[in-house]
């Protein structure tokens, strides 16, 4: 069978999702988990976009040992130079150069003629090839590009040294049959004296990203690009976990396989969900909470007799363990460490001490602590909170008029604590008002969601908030995790305010995306 490579762009294209702003620590943590999941290449970011982006790509390049690391670059020499500097310590560095080729993009965005675009491809792919052994080229908005010009652009990039050719469905415009034919056409007509690997990059505007990606594989693609949980701007990208499982379940049809470690899928999805601040919908394919739930009595009866009656994906396949023994309040440090090893969670000795202390606090409140609780505890403790003031404690008092008074304590990196007090019609409103008073910023709450980490009345609460920095119009997502819903809410809102504070201080800068002109 053919082996399909997987390139993950959660840290680049996924971060284009409104409200998603991964910290450098979070990006490194996600990259390490993606390597464990079996990703062949990670598009770690857009080094020229900002100092944060450059640092993240640089740190990931230094960290990964098995996975290729690539940086995005417009057809601009300074972008390619930035990618080179950020990736020079990578074990397997790559660069991804793109320029738009559709009539609407060339006319209104680039303001270039077709001949000028071709000349730019030759110049910049050749320049990238002088710095990198592996160069990927993308004709942006390829699916709205005339077929003959698309072939000309791709052949030009191949002649200039590109070895990977990505055909992006930038606005989610194409259909599976059209995309299949596009790949067949290019593969049959592009000439080269070396192997050229073609890849799809699908957006989900019409709900066909997974179908289009699988059609591209059928049409001869050797690498696919997408994100975890399908995060990305507008309707998002293809969800890589869906393609990976589809290849496994239907390898009889696609005659293709991959190096994806499927039983790391659920952990990978959970981590990206928590750090992006975007909960996974219950009905999401492969990793959603209802993926293995069977409400119909007929379905339940069939599954109990033989899971294959209605269950083509087993929970164990994607890393949801049914028979794993939970921990409890009497579990000691040794059992806790063994559980971390069982879940393949890598932590230092000093981190174990802190995690075990938090585990014992949770165990006093929760009868059974599941694998999901442990993963949430580790993710929430190690990197979830951003630098700066952190939520510490809160107290709540009910007033005779039905309002609530909340006192919130925030602690800085020097362990100094500052308290603020505010009232509200409810406890969450009062807590948020107190946090607003502390940060003294103009922030508008756009959404507030509570998700139970596990089933049962004693489940940990994971709160997701979306806020707008009113002064800039920037959207930020953040999450908080705690056994207590009010504390989880305060942690999430504090984290969101920290992101706004970092933007106002110039630490988080404007993102540069594919939509920006060259």
Going by CATH, what is the homologous superfamily of the largest domain? Aldolase class I
* Biggest beta sheet attributes: 8 strands, parallel
Oligomerization state? single chain
Give the uncertain stretches in residue-range form: 294-300
Total count of domains: 3
Question: Which CATH class of the largest domain?
Answer: Alpha Beta
Strand order of the largest sheet: 8-7-6-5-4-3-2-9
Count the DSSP helices.
17
Cofactor: Mn(2+)
Catalytic activity: 3-methyl-2-oxobutanoate + acetyl-CoA + H2O = (2S)-2-isopropylmalate + CoA + H(+)
Keywords: Amino-acid biosynthesis, Branched-chain amino acid biosynthesis, Cytoplasm, Leucine biosynthesis, Manganese, Metal-binding, Transferase
EC number: 2.3.3.13
Describe the structure.
- This protein is α/β, with parallel strands linked by helices.
- It has 3 domains: 2-276, Aldolase class I (TIM Barrel); 297-369, no CATH class; 385-516, Alpha-isopropylmalate synthase LeuA, regulatory domain (Double Stranded RNA Binding Domain, 2-Layer Sandwich), CATH 3.30.160.270.
- Helix content is 40%, strand content 20%.
- It has 17 helices and 16 strands.
- The protein has helices spanning 24-37, 51-63, 77-87, 103-110, 114-131, 147-159, 176-189, 209-218, 240-249, 251-254, 265-276, 297-305, 333-342, 349-365, 371-382, 427-439, 485-504, and strands at 2-3, 5-8, 41-45, 68-74, 93-100, 135-140, 164-169, 197-202, 223-226, 256-257, 390-398, 404-411, 417-424, 443-452, 461-469, 474-482.
- An 8-stranded parallel beta sheet has the order 8-7-6-5-4-3-2-9. The chain has a 3-stranded antiparallel beta sheet with strand order 11-12-13.
- A hairpin with a 4-residue loop joins strand 15 and strand 16 (474-482).
- Helix 3 (77-87) packs parallel to helix 5 and helix 16 (427-439) packs parallel to helix 17.
- The longest helix has 20 residues, at 485-504.
- The radius of gyration is 24 Å and the shape is globular.
- The two termini are 41 Å apart.
- Residues 294-300 have low confidence and may be disordered.
- Mn(2+) binds at residues 13, 201, 203, 237.
- One of its GO terms (biological process) is L-leucine biosynthetic process.
- Residues 4-266 form the Pyruvate carboxyltransferase domain.
